[in-house]
Amino acid sequence: MSSMPNGQHSSFPPVKLYTTLHDLYLDGKQGPLEETLCVIKPNSDTKYGEVVPFNNKYTIHSAQVGSADDLAHLQMEINCYLLMFYAGPMQVVFIGVAEGQSDDDTLKKDTIHANAQRSFSVIDNTYTDSDAFVKQHPQSSPLHFAFALDFAQSLPYIHSPDKIYKLNSKRWLAECPLRSANDTIIDCAIPPQKLFSSSQTERSAAIDAEIARVKQILLDRPPYVLKLTQSLSSVGTLIVRDEKEREEVIRKAEEYLKEYLPRITKENDYLFPTSLILSDFIPGETMALNFFVKGSGEVVFLGACHQLSTGESGRQATAITFQEQEKLEKKYRDVLDHIGEVLHGEGYRGPCGADVMEDPESGRLFVIDLNVRSALSLVLYTLKDHLNGEREFEMALVYECVMLKIDRDEVEKKFAKEFESARLILMGSTRLGSKEQWAYGMILAGNDQDDIDKLSDRILEFEIEGGQHGDVADAAA
């Protein structure tokens, strides 16, 4: 089997996309689109230094991984491949690690650039543009940032970091007109004169008193869900169903507040960066909705997905059943239109993901989470023609970060038949430095769950021991 220069086997069918962010942003207007996409995730954990762009103002809680270099590979590479896969022929930005920040040669700008080109080489040329990989960001092109970044304050942007931070906060969701699950907001109650006191003793005493106050509130009412106002992936959502879980959640909340309360400054106090949200626990089914809010406020439906436990590993993944999409769009249309109306009122235009839960008793729908940015599972709907229309696969799922002990060439060799039939699509891969570890974003398709489970089990035979657990996947999700 011959291999193309970019690394993709010539017999693998190029991926065709139903729509792209480029087309959605243009909204029928004549191109080209003079805007650039940047989905770099920030880091606010001091132990990782500044290998990943560091946020001191827009603090955000994130997953724990082995090293700063590992975090850089996951958040500056894999995350970008996942969230840019459906960008289409628009300019996209990758960021290499600054000189002197890492000894990992695979994190240098040119290496990241080359790896990105190979990752996107699986997409049909109709939906990409080789010129979209820019060496230097043109000053005339404003940026669509998926996350609030400290350094973005000095760059041309579509939505300000303040706006992005606000719209992605659980605190704003609890306050806005959308129906959420009976939320209670716990803001920092330390008086400014003590919070910003020049006396370290006075400040520390005030922080200790605030932590004690919050712990007392959390002793109250299980079952409940505790949410950090700003977090990446699922690490900021903690469920309390009994006394044992409550003890563990209080311990985690105390650790979080000890770390982040001292980082409230006069520059970010107005952003409420450490707020906690208590929500009623609703044991209902949750659906992940993807959509695009146009400049007019109209909402374009881009798929409804559900969580799936796969194969012998029990690994959780986000899945789509193609034949259900028309029915699900009708079911959730009113909720989508309401979200679009609220976001339009905030001046937002762009992709969005919402987790909507249905109360099994009343049938009421609650918006329990809102990611005002590109969502990972959106890619599944963009593949509906490629997987369902052309090949009649009934369902598909996306693994955001699978850690394997074999490289990309070996994966393509061992699963050549699956790649040729489009049952398996690699969205991107990166090697974690010099270690024999490779991180992959991938899509599995099949006619039913049993079909997908069998393929999943074969792939996970090559997983790094312990790779399905912990926070590694969360860092890239």
UniProtKB/TrEMBL annotation:
Keyword terms: ATP-binding, Nucleotide-binding
GO molecular function, one term: metal ion binding
ATP-grasp domain mapped to chain residues: 182-401
Record's keyword annotation contains Methyltransferase: no
Protein name, entry field: ATP-grasp domain-containing protein
Record organism: Cercospora zeae-maydis SCOH1-5
